[in-house]
Design a protein that fits this description.
By secondary structure, the protein is mainly alpha-helical. Among the domains are: 55 residues, no CATH class; 41 residues. It contains six helices and no strands. The radius of gyration is 33 Å and the shape is elongated.
């Protein structure tokens, strides 16, 4: 029996009963191979399309700008002292306000003397769980 004829009979539920066990098994294998093959080819095509799209949508690399030594210190990643002071004052104000709201007291009753950054050693799953719990508690 030809493969095309076998698959045609395999597609009809009434004609499947007339097929021998060997023909059923062979038709099942062909159907499985065709399904897996089509899926594999589709995934390969999808991967190629995604790779092409990634090349077109990737951000352009930053342009290299030549600057003299005095300007390079500004761009070296070190903020100026005035910027650090302004950021620290904003940070202190934000922390003070948050503490005052949490403690239900006036901002004038809170004095912040020192701020130290503590390294977060928790996993990403732990942080996501905490964020989810905080979001759920605000909804209720």
């Amino acid at each position: 029996m030809d493969t095309i004829e076998l698959l045609a009979k395999f597609s009809d539920p009434e004609l499947i009963k007339t097929l021998s066990t060997g023909n059923r098994f062979f038709a099942g294998l062909i159907t499985t191979a065709l399904g897996m093959g089509i899926t594999f080819v589709s995934l390969v095509v999808l991967q190629i399309v995604m790779a092409i799209m990634a090349k077109f949508t990737a951000p352009a690399p930053p342009a290299v700008v030549q600057a003299d030594a005095s300007e390079s210190a500004k761009f070296a990643g070190e903020p100026e002292e005035a910027d650090v002071l302004v950021n620290d004052e904003e940070l202190v104000a934000a922390i003070t306000t948050a503490l005052a709201l949490q403690l239900k007291t006036s901002v004038s009753n809170i004095v912040i003397r020192n701020i130290e950054k503590v390294e977060d050693t928790s996993s990403a799953w732990h942080r996501a769980g905490i964020a989810e719990q905080m979001n759920n508690s605000q909804i209720q």
